[in-house]
Each structure stands twice: as structure tokens, then as C-alpha cells.
Design brief:
Blueprint: E1 2-10, E2 19-27, E3 37-40, H1 43-48, H2 55-62, H3 66-70, H4 80-94, E4 98-102, H5 108-118, E5 130-132, H6 133-139, H7 155-173
Bound molecules: magnesium ion.
């Protein structure tokens, strides 16, 4: 099983929210693959595909650091279709089968499901291989988060931090990844 930790920066909290950045890393119980994924997505292309925004999330972004906002609000942002194509290529390069982890049973992988639906494509993972980091974190609250490296609320830094926190839980609790 190839374990992938995902983090999306979004423009809303609903399952069909626009996603403006994808960050992901491939990890094992004790290593993080340095060939990771981090790309911004143009908001216009998300809206064209029928994804939505929430005013509360737009207001929240206005209060975040310039570094976090610039990680997606920049001229390099590709179209939703192009970035999802590159994300699929990157995922395939990691092997098969893919286990996808997000921070919330109802969040990151669910939002990507909506994106694939909008693009009339299937997710490159089986629905039974979707895992929730938030569940692990909340069950094992006695395991503190490791130090955060990089800029919070940038998708890749968040994904790597989640993977490192999960690795710490696995190690301290003697849990093996499937
Ligand atoms: Mg994030």
C-alpha cells in the first residue's frame, strides 16, 4: 500500500468547495518521500468547473499570512484540469494501491471526489482505501504534534506536518500501517 497524505487549501468548507492548492506527500511509518507534490490552482478554473466558495473562508484567508496566501494566489496557478492531471501522474508514479489520508473524514478526499466528478473522472484510489488523520490524532491526543516546519496553511507544509504527526503516533503506539 502506498500511503499519501493530502492537504487542500480551499475557498470553502463544503464538499464541492473550490480548491486553490494541492499538497501531498508519500510516506511510510518512518520516512517521507522527498518527491512530493505542491501546485496552486486558478480559482477561476474551479468556478468554471462548478465548484463553490464560502464568504467565511474568503474572509478567513484575508487574515492569514502573506506567505500562506501567496502559496496559491500567484500567477503560476494552473487550471483545475491541468493540475489534476499532474496530480494523477504523480500519484501513479508512487505505485499501487494508493491509500489516501486527509485531515477529516469528511474533508480533503471528499472534496477531491467532487473535483473528479466535476471533471467526469474517477479518483485514482478505491473508496475503501481512504483514511482519516484527524481520527488518529483525536484518538491519540496524548501524542503531541511535532514541531511545524515551514509556513502553516500552505498545502505541502500542512501535509508533511500531518504525516510527521501520524508517524509519531504510529511509533509511540506501536501501530503498523496496512
Ligand atoms: Mg492546509
Amino acid at each position: 500500500m502506498k500511503h499519501i497524505m493530502l492537504d487542500l487549501e480551499t475557498m470553502g468548507l463544503r464538499s464541492n468547495a473550490a480548491i486553490v492548492s494541492i499538497g501531498a506527500c508519500h510516506f511510510t511509518a518512518d520516512a517521507i518521500d522527498p518527491i512530493d507534490f505542491h501546485l496552486p490552482i486558478s480559482l477561476a478554473s474551479c468556478l468554471e468547473a462548478g465548484l463553490t466558495t464560502d464568504q467565511s473562508t474568503i474572509d478567513w484567508w484575508a487574515k492569514q499570512s502573506v506567505g500562506a496566501r501567496m502559496s496559491w494566489q500567484n500567477a503560476a496557478a494552473g487550471s483545475l484540469l491541468d493540475v489534476m492531471g499532474l496530480f494523477g501522474q504523480w500519484l501513479r508514479s508512487k505505485g499501487d494501491p494508493i491509500a489516501i489520508w486527509g485531515n477529516g473524514a469528511g474533508f480533503d478526499p471528499v472534496l477531491l471526489d467532487s473535483v473528479y466528478k466535476a471533471l467526469e473522472a474517477d479518483p485514482p484510489w478505491k473508496y475503501w482505501n481512504v483514511y482519516c488523520f484527524r481520527t488518529m490524532k483525536n484518538i491519540h491526543k496524548d501524542v503531541s504534534a511535532p514541531p511545524f516546519l515551514g509556513e502553516k496553511h500552505t498545502a505541502l507544509a500542512d501535509a508533511v506536518h500531518q504525516a510527521q504527526h501520524l508517524q509519531k503516533i504510529l511509533k509511540l503506539k506501536g501501530i503498523q500501517l496496512p
